[in-house]
Amino acid sequence: MEIIHEQEQREEMILRVAASMMAAARTAPKGRGIDNLAIAVLQKEGIREVSEKLKEMGNREDGPGFFLRDAENILLAQAMVVIGTRIEPMQLTPCGLCGFSGCAEKNEHPNHPCTFNTGDLGIAIGSAVSVAMDNRVDNRIMFSVGMALLEMGTLGADVKIIYGIPLSVSGKSPFFDRKSKKPATSD
């Protein structure tokens, strides 16, 4: 009798779900139909590299302690979807949702996000994690991972905001009930 055990298919299952998550993020609605997203999947080696960067960042004098926790936590993921956005104003008049009088003034501050870029990123992330949920794949949206990826330049210099979504298929989600690795400071 030929039998295929779940453990033998786990990596393939995760990568199939990750591919569907990327498709969901790409096809999510976007302001004016303009797509500024960068989307990728990291596998074990890429996750290890991000983990090392998180450790470096967490061990800095002013480093957030939870970066050390997240560095260990993501090592339990079989894959990780990463989604980021470029900052590109939508040229909507009148707008000013970013806090400036309009896109012309906003362009004087190139690293200040356009509200539509961040909104589109949030909608894309929501679409992606809904695919993970529909497939019962454990996940968590992590800004710390995005900060590491930004420092690493993983999605390119023009991508200014990134989130990571580690994925796991196991008996219990490794992304909840987490303990901090570094005590919080009271400054």
Q: How are the strands of the biggest sheet laid out side by side?
A: 1-2-4-3
List unreliable stretches of 5+ residues: none
Q: Helix count? A: 6
The portion of residues forming beta strands comes to 5-15%
Cα distance, first to last residue? 64 Å
Task: Describe the protein's architecture and organization.
By secondary structure, the chain is of the alpha+beta class. The protein has one domain: NADH Oxidase (3-Layer(aba) Sandwich). The chain has six helices and four strands. A four-stranded antiparallel β-sheet has the order 1-2-4-3, with helices on both faces. α1 runs antiparallel to α5, α2 runs antiparallel to α3 and α2 packs across α6. It starts with 5 loop residues before the first helix and ends in a 19-residue tail after the last strand. The model has no long low-confidence stretch (mean pLDDT 93).
Structural topology:
Blueprint: H1 6-27, E1 37-42, H2 44-58, H3 65-73, E2 79-86, H4 103-106, H5 115-134, E3 138-139, H6 143-152, E4 159-168
Antiparallel strand pairs: 1-2, 2-4, 3-4
